[in-house]
Automatic annotation (TrEMBL):
Residues 4-252 form the ABC transporter domain. GO terms for molecular function: ATP binding; ATP hydrolysis activity. It holds the Pfam family ABC_tran. The keyword Transmembrane helix does not apply. GO terms for biological process: transmembrane transport. This is Stage 0 sporulation protein KD. GO terms for cellular component: plasma membrane. The keyword Nucleotide-binding applies. The lineage of its organism: Bacteria, Pseudomonadati, Pseudomonadota, Alphaproteobacteria, Hyphomicrobiales. It is a peripheral membrane protein. Its main location: membrane. Belongs to the ABC transporter superfamily. Gene3D superfamilies: P-loop containing nucleotide triphosphate hydrolases. It comes from Martelella mediterranea DSM 17316.
Length: 267
């Protein structure tokens, strides 16, 4: 479904040159599969996600190919990309408060996402928003639909973010550190929701995290990044049990011993 070939991204540097931050990444993702991308801060995880969804800053230069269902996103005109982005790719951001519009109720934001791509009536959009809010397990959705983001808890806001990402039944979902900003107890609930929805809807998921524990729990395959390069890629269990690269070993070693033992035991 998604095939990335030799993706290079660079930004202008202060001396008038270019600084390359992704040095030729290859990856592929099948329908319904979850690929975890792990790597330390600055390794290029977010730049990779933004390139796929077409939201790199204008100053960025991207080369290579990002093929979604055979269509190269890097070669598409802006308008076509905007349409495709909403229809085929959903994005879940790290900080739901900044991703949501503070001046609009949860329900209207979900409804707006729906109406942007499909000609449906206000009443239909509201009903569909309610259904999506139930799907992401927002308790008492009928009341919450009229709440503004600041009236919701962090976990509820992230659920609204997931509902928006799913509004258009995307083929591919990208979640960039979706639980980093949340309380640990809420983190597990949000991961469960994402996991269940991905299985139920058969969407492909790219899950970005600096937390190898989160990746281990959620991903079929894992890609380890360091300094804009792919260090290794493989089945999650294989990579965790037999890390090929020193950097992956360091990542694993940074986990508490008990967590590490659990991962290496394959649980
Ligand atoms: N708009 C930008 N302009 C210039 N350089 C940028 C820009 N965005 C990112 N970079 C650079 O690209 C590199 C990769 O950054 P990126 O945000 O992808 O890392 P990351 O792995 O997602 O880190 P984190 O886990 O901290 O979010 C970094 O060196 C960063 O400084």
């Amino acid at each position: 479904m998604l095939d990335i070939r030799n993706l290079r991204v660079s930004f202008p540097d202060r001396r008038g040159g270019q600084r390359e931050v992704l040095h030729g990444i290859d990856l592929s993702l099948a329908k319904g599969e979850t690929l975890g991308i792990v790597g330390e801060s600055g390794s290029g995880k977010s730049v990779l996600a933004l390139a796929v969804i077409g939201l790199l800053p204008r100053t960025a230069r991207a080369e290579g190919e990002i093929l979604l269902d055979g269509e190269n996103l890097l070669a598409l005109p802006e308008r076509r990309l905007t349409r495709l982005r909403g229809a085929k790719i959903g994005m879940i951001f790290q900080e739901p408060m900044t991703a949501l519009n503070p001046a609009m109720t949860a329900g209207s934001q979900i409804a707006e996402a729906l109406r942007l791509h499909r000609p449906i009536s206000r009443a239909e959009a509201r009903l569909e928003a309610l259904r999506l809010m139930d799907m992401v397990r927002i308790r008492d959705a009928k009341a919450r639909i009229n709440s503004y983001p600041h009236e919701l808890s962090g976990g509820e806001r992230q659920r609204v973010g997931i509902a928006i990402a799913l509004a258009l039944k995307p083929r591919l979902l990208i979640a960039d550190e979706p639980t980093t900003a949340l309380d640990v107890t809420v983190q597990a609930e949000i991961l469960d929701i994402i996991d269940d929805l991905v299985a139920e809807l058969g969407v492909g998921l790219i899950l970005i995290s600096h937390d190898i524990g989160v990746i281990a729990r959620m991903s079929d395959r894992v890609l380890v990044m360091h300094d804009g390069e792919k260090m290794e890629e493989g089945g999650t269990e294989d990579v965790l049990r037999h890390p090929a690269h020193d950097y992956t070993k360091t990542l694993l070693a940074s986990l508490p011993r008990r967590v590490r033992a659990g991962l290496e035991g394959g649980s």
